[in-house]
């Protein structure tokens, strides 16, 4: 199940007023903090925040466990189904793009992966609840996004451009109180996805991590040779 924990701003974004009555998909959470929830094997906890950039709504969505983030520019207010559909497509697109660039697709079996994803992420809930650590990362990413938008003079025009911004943010070293040391969100989400939706065991996930590291090194060496002429 997808759990979208909404800040005050995100709760207002997903709500609308009809005949003077506020209608909202955002419910009261089962517990005050995300960590106190009963965690099912396929429960995906995300934090959602909303801001306005260049007079348009922008949503920032971050995975609480891995700090993997996605940015949704020019979001349509109170369009819950549209958001969930766009969210799912971008999540899968970003993961497959990362897997393709890092030679990870050899560990991905498309059909069973999508079946498992659709089965376990078909249902979703919206809760009004924050998360201090994830919120700090969202604020950093929002600041960078606003800076980029000012430089571009516009918001990302399509999902591909937005996905590139996601990739840049997820290739940034982060820390998490529940994880020892520093890590890359894209690598941790890749490992999480291989475990949850591709059925890989820990040795298979480590092999994928090792291959990713090798590809990164190969790219660095190639770039170095090209610079040297």
Q: What would you note in describing this structure?
A:
The structure is a single chain. With 229 residues, the chain is an alpha/beta fold. The protein has 7 helices and 10 strands. The strands form 3 sheets. The protein has a 6-stranded mixed β-sheet with strand order 4-8-1-5-6-7, sandwiched between helices. The chain starts with a strand and ends with a helix.
Query: Regarding quaternary structure, how should these chains be classified?
Result: single chain
The ordered H/E elements are: EHEEEEEEHHEHHEEHH
Q: Regions with pLDDT < 50 over 5+ consecutive residues? A: none
Radius of gyration: 18 Å
Total DSSP E strands: 10
Number of helices: 7
Please describe the biggest sheet, giving its number of strands, its sense, and whether it closes into a barrel: 6 strands, mixed
Entry summary:
With 229 residues, the protein is of the alpha/beta class. It has seven helices and ten strands. 49% of the residues lie in helices and 21% in strands.
Question: What keywords describe this structure?
Answer:
single chain; 229 residues; 6-stranded mixed β-sheet; 10 strands
Summarize the topology.
Blueprint: E1 2-6, H1 8-14, E2 16-18, E3 21-23, E4 26-27, E5 44-53, E6 56-63, E7 69-73, H2 80-101, H3 110-120, E8 124-128, H4 132-152, H5 159-170, E9 174-176, E10 179-183, H6 185-197, H7 202-228
Helix pairs in contact: 2-5, 6-7
């Amino acid at each position: 199940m997808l759990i979208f924990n909404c800040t005050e701003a995100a709760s207002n974004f997903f709500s609308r007023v009809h005949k003077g009555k506020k209608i909202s998909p955002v419910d009261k959470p089962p517990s005050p903090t995300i960590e106190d929830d009963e965690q099912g094997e396929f429960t995906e906890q995300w934090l959602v925040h909303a801001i306005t950039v260049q007079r348009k709504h922008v949503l920032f969505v971050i995975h609480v466990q891995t700090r993997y983030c996605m940015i949704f520019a020019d979001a349509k207010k109170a369009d819950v189904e549209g958001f969930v559909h766009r969210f799912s497509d971008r999540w899968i697109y970003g993961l497959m793009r990362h897997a393709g660039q890092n030679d990870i697709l050899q560990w991905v079996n498309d059909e069973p992966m999508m079946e498992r994803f659709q089965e376990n992420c078909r249902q979703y809930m919206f809760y009004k609840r924050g998360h201090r650590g994830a919120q700090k990362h969202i604020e950093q990413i929002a600041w960078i996004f606003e800076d980029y938008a000012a430089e571009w003079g516009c918001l990302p025009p399509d999902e591909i451009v937005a996905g590139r911004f996601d990739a840049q943010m997820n290739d940034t070293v982060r820390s998490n109180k529940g994880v020892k040391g520093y890590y890359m969100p894209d690598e941790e989400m890749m490992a999480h996805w291989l475990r949850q939706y591709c059925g890989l065991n820990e040795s298979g996930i480590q092999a994928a991590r090792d291959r990713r590291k090798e590809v990164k090194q190969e790219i660095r060496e190639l770039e170095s040779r090209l610079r040297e002429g």
